[in-house]
Specification:
This protein is α/β, with parallel strands linked by helices. Helices cover about 35% and strands about 15% of the residues. The protein has helices spanning about 10-15, 45-60, 75-85, 125-140, 160-170, 185-195, 210-220, 255-265, 265-275, 280-290, 305-310, 320-330, and strands spanning about 5, 20, 25, 30, 65, 90-95, 110, 120, 145-150, 175-180, 200, 225, 295, 315-320. The strands form 4 sheets. An 8-stranded parallel β-sheet has the order 4-5-6-9-10-11-12-13. A two-stranded antiparallel sheet has the order 1-14. Helix 3 (about 75-85) crosses helix 4 (about 125-140) and helix 4 packs across helix 5. The longest helix has 15 residues, at about 125-140. The radius of gyration is 19 Å and the shape is globular.
Length: about 350
């Protein structure tokens, strides 16, 4: 007896189950657009990127996630704006700020666990309106549905940054406030300044979310957006090598020896996917959706067929028996290699 339900046609896929991010209604699975810019998974041209984005919209994704720092000089936002011209009202656009710094704006560095060692942002409130106006121009829209500071600025109180976004909400340029890569304490402090609709955090089978952050989000009624829900593609079971120009060369978990170790350790999960006649990616996404009724994963892909497969996972219902088996496997699976944060 199969322990999942997945009977879905392409027409049915165009209307996915919905979830609420603090009042913002979106599809249960969104689309992470970072992969549509060059320098992420290697080279890609705009025509292919636009085709992939439209495939996600056609398959039912109504949350499109981007950032001012994805791609060179606003490339990712600009591609989204062009692709969605005439279809803007079909989706909610979420973008993030703090990485694309105008000339003369001082970068504020902070350490990370990838090979490049550090990133830098500037979330000083005096720059926030300018960031938003630049994103609105690139996206070709009059409002941002969900706006996040990409990372907390180590030199600026998060509450000050949030206050600047609250001003944009009051002025109608932004609809909802989000936070990204924050702690539970930071979420609580920000929420006291202005209600937070969603907190974005890395969460997948190979990267558990911070339980304190999850508890705070649930207590405050804040939605959860899971970035890298497929472990930067690892959980698809298809990553056999990492080529030149692929940002995963910077990720310790994708170093050759770690990649092989992790492939071996996740073999039991892939076995359950095969048993259920799901792709490994569909199982990973269905598992994540089962963890919380207000989590919205944002997988990204450049291939329309894979995008459709991934989004179909929004209709997969895993039995408690399968979830228990997966929990037992994941509880004893140690992933080789560090993470960004």
């Amino acid at each position: 007896m199969k322990t999942h339900s997945m009977t879905i046609t392409n027409k049915q896929a165009k209307s996915l189950p919905a979830r609420s991010l603090g009042g913002l209604e979106v599809s249960a699975l969104g689309f992470g657009a970072m992969v549509l810019s060059p320098g992420v998974y290697g080279e890609i041209d705009d025509e292919r990127g636009e085709r992939a984005l439209l495939a996600a919209v056609e398959a039912g994704a109504t949350l499109i996630d981007t950032a001012d720092g994805y791609g060179a000089d606003g490339h990712n936002e600009r591609l989204i704006g062009k692709a969605l011209r005439g279809r803007r009202d079909e989706v909610a656009i979420a973008t993030k700020f703090g990485f694309r710094l105008p000339e003369g704006v001082e970068p504020h560095p902070f350490p990370v666990g990838f090979a490049f060692g550090e990133l830098a942002v500037n979330a000083d409130p005096k720059h926030v309106r300018g960031y938003a106006e630049a994103s609105l121009r690139e996206l070709g829209t009059d409002r941002i549905d969900l706006y996040y500071p990409h990372f907390p600025d180590p030199q600026v109180p998060l509450e000050d940054t949030v206050g600047a976004v609250a001003d944009l909400i009051q002025d109608g340029l932004v609809r909802y406030l989000g936070l990204s890569n924050v702690t539970a304490d930071q979420l609580r402090a920000a929420h006291a300044v202005h209600p937070v609709a969603a907190v974005q955090t890395e969460w997948s089978m190979w990267r558990p979310a911070d339980p304190e952050l999850l508890a705070a989000a649930r207590e405050l009624g804040v939605g959860l957006v899971a970035w890298s829900p497929l472990g930067a593609g690892f959980l698809t079971g298809t990553v056999s090598e990492v080529k030149e120009g692929d940002f995963r060369q910077q990720m310790p978990r994708f170093a050759a020896e770690n990649r092989q170790a992790n492939n071996d350790r996740f073999a039991p999960v892939r076995g359950i996917a095969a048993e259920l006649e799901l792709t490994p990616a569909q199982l990973a996404l269905a598992w994540l959706l089962a963890q919380d009724p207000h989590v919205v994963p944002i997988p990204g892909s450049r291939t329309p067929a894979h995008i459709e497969e991934n989004l179909a996972a929004a209709r997969v219902e895993l039995s408690q028996e399968v979830l228990d088996r997966l929990s037992a496997i994941l509880a004893t699976t140690e992933v080789a290699g560090g993470t960004l944060l």
